[in-house]
Amino acid sequence: MKVIIMAGGYATRLWPITKSKAKPLLPVGTKRIVDHVYEKVLKFNSPILLSTNKRFEEDFRKWAEGKDVEVVVEDTMREEEKLGAVKALAQVVEGIDDDFLVVAGDNIFSFELNPIVELFRKKKSPVTALYDVGDYELAKRYGVAELEGEIVRRFYEKPEKPASTLVGIAIYTFPREIADLLVEYVGGNERSDNLGDFLSYLCQKMDVYGCIFDNGNWYDVGNPDSYIEAFKFYTDSFVHESVEVAKAAKIIEPVVIERDVVIKGRSIVGPYAYIGEGCEIDSSDVSESVVFSKTVLKRVRLWRSIIDDDCEIRNIELSGSIIGGHAKIQRG
């Protein structure tokens, strides 16, 4: 079995941060989102391919250094050109003569993937991972499965009236013959943006099984709020030895503070804060937030926000905000 990590999207719901950063490479503690996926699939000792786009190719090649990963690149540079997940997957599997496990690169979950692989080996048919979000309103955001025993009878993409609260979490196992069906599907001008539509198509042709994961946590890092929640749950603590902290400043773990950060005045950093390399935090409070490199915060209260590289922010309180790179914001 081969493993395919899908990391070719442009994550428009996290713009402007993800205009310059691939979502799977965003930090979650000392790791990146895709590190969590990689560590789960590495345990199968299978060949791993990562599918991305031309814009983020070099970033993923750098990430893959020293890892047993082959980077496969689709020839797109922006959202308007993207192939969609199904076409991108079809491109990857066209030359594969093996069964394959597919995992979205922006998934973050605590459970192991052995159950879906074991069910696949038992049934020799497609299997999709399902997770009970426990709320019908929340289920409307996802692909929803209608089950009969273990078999998915229908799969509804973002339904107005969900049949259940069991949602697809972009983890699939497919037998090798599905590669030909994928190529046939995208060649027939069917919708090719998400794998949920392809799954609905498969349900009409063969038995598709559902594997319910109910023994852990799953986060779809699709928007700033879910990213912060995942960050809070999975973050560990690390402060680089080069960090300078004033006597009056306070660090409340867990935090991740990268090299060459200077924390001045009566600043409070944490809990649940990521401070990127070369930042200056002066008389500011930062919690439940991610601040990328070389940003200056002076007399700022920052909560549940994401600040991109090279920003300068002074004399303001920000909550639930996303600030793009090189911004200068000052009040008073």
TrEMBL record:
Keywords: Transferase. It comes from the Archaea. The keyword Protein biosynthesis does not apply. InterPro entries: NTP_transferase_dom, Nucleotide-diphossugar_trans, Trimer_LpxA-like_sf. GO terms for molecular function: transferase activity. Pfam families: NTP_transferase. The keyword Transferase applies. Residues 2-236 form the Nucleotidyl transferase domain. This is Bifunctional protein GlmU.
